[in-house]
Prior knowledge:
28% of the residues lie in helices and 21% in strands. By secondary structure, it is of the alpha/beta class. The strands form eight sheets. Strands 11, 12, 13, 14, 16, 18, 19 and 22 form an eight-stranded mixed beta sheet that branches. Strands 4-5-3-9 form a four-stranded antiparallel beta sheet. A three-stranded antiparallel beta sheet has the order 2-6-7, with no helix packed on it. β12, α8 (286-298) and β13 form a beta-alpha-beta unit. α7 (247-257) crosses α8 (286-298). The longest helix is centred in the last third of the chain and has 21 residues, at 486-506. The N and C termini lie far apart (89 Å).
Amino acid sequence: MVSRLLVVTSLIALALGKPVRRDLQLHESRQSVPRGFSLVGPAADETTLALRLALVRSNTAGLIDALYDVSNPSSAHYGEHLTKEEVEAFVAPKQETVSAVNTWLSENNLQSTSLTATGDWLAINVPVSQANELFGTNFSVYTQSSTSKQIIRTLEYSIPTDLVGHLDLVHPTITFPDPFGKKPVVNAITPSKRSETDSKRADNCLVNGTYITPSCLQSLYSIPTAPATSSSGQLGVTGYVDEYAEYSDLTTFLEQYRPDVNSSTGFTIVSLDGGEDPQSSGDAGDEASLDIQYTVGIATNVPVTFITVGGDVNSGDELANVLIDTANYLLNQTAPPQVITTSYGLDESTISQNLAYNLCDLYAQLGARGVSILFASGDGGVSGGHWDSSCTTFVPTFPSGCPYVTSVGGTINVPETAVNFSGGGFSNYWPTADFQTDAVSTYLSGIGSTNQGLYNASGRGYPDVATYAADFEVVIDGTAYGVSGTSCASPTFASIVALLNDQLLSAGKSTLGWLNPLLYSTASSAFNDITQGNNYACSDYTTGFDTATGWDPVTGWGTPDFTKLLSAVGL
């Protein structure tokens, strides 16, 4: 009797320590290990995984309909942006979804923490051994060749059949970090190399060296120098990958390049996930310095917030986590900045399609609330976020393919031509967006069979617009440098949008919010059409897209004319 009791007790204990088995269904997979990573071997059973669970939102289709309704200039409800509560009502998971997922977690002795106000993102900690059984997979260790860092991922995973329609995705699983580990700035050269023969043009742009300053951009794009007057306009700059901006550098920058502005003008710092912004010698980053100095330096008197997010996106805390946390932080604010610029991205193929869709829907939520989301289009032409002359097919970037963000490409020279690194092309995840059907069709008809089979001709085309993107003078640790990349273009265009918002708010109107329906309709003629240049980056830099009259996947509609944009927005 005693021995039988011990056996029964042991079986119960064993059962309590193992996941409750349910029928599983393959949920996400990728065909192979992404380039830039190599398999090391199985992850240790006892290693704890910090996983995020995305629950299916209740009415995403309704949210998108509402987004179009308030963002289309021809709509009777244009500009009537939704409140925080109205957006949350669209996306909060249904009660049956919450119950189904919580019951499953409870059965497996797992505790979750809600990461969002609506409860659509949960966090759990689970050992590898249990995760392998829960998701019918094998988590493994991979080495990133560019950094020698190791991460734990899998190439496929399943979820319980009865959670299909309730559990949207598990992360990180098949999404890998940026395999190339590059910051988005293409190059950095000191202006001390500038020729003594360089001289200023009438528009304040240098010839021969063509170094770009705020006054040059103001002249090129008719940007006003007068300070903003609205008390409610804001502009947000994201800071990732341990990139920091220093107040002292901003002061030096303003003294040298905007002497008409109070040199003590600063910016507000918001920290997420342990993000820092140390103000000591040697800490300034080229990307953060660029983004802060050109938003403060162009969007005169518009309050700028620097959102610094912790985690090294190149060593496992990949960019997807950072983007999720940034978007959820903004959505949780009663009054987030009405313009957000981000100079980071990754190749679309490295992120799982479900996760890409989920993040894109976060940007749709922000757009519905009147926030304009801008991203640099990438610095690898048609080869993705990096130069790759050996690529055999074009590589779209993320989040530029998301239709609810505005993607900003780059130009060079005066008069302007496309800069060859300007990221552009067509998404493999999203179809051609409704707002751009005519523009994309016109371009594709013009190129005929050129590049046939190298890109998705039915995909969402990007970038949407462009600005100058080369040789911006930036102060880093007290010294002036020249930096290039579409990461110069995004904060420039964001500053223009912030100044447009200021004048709209001062006139008693709403902010612009999601820009794309406007850009592809009444505002399409408010841009300087760029018809020279290309973004060739494949087959030894001989293959890519050319610019064209009208919209093209190199510079979008072209570069902005502030005066014409004022008219386009009804001012």
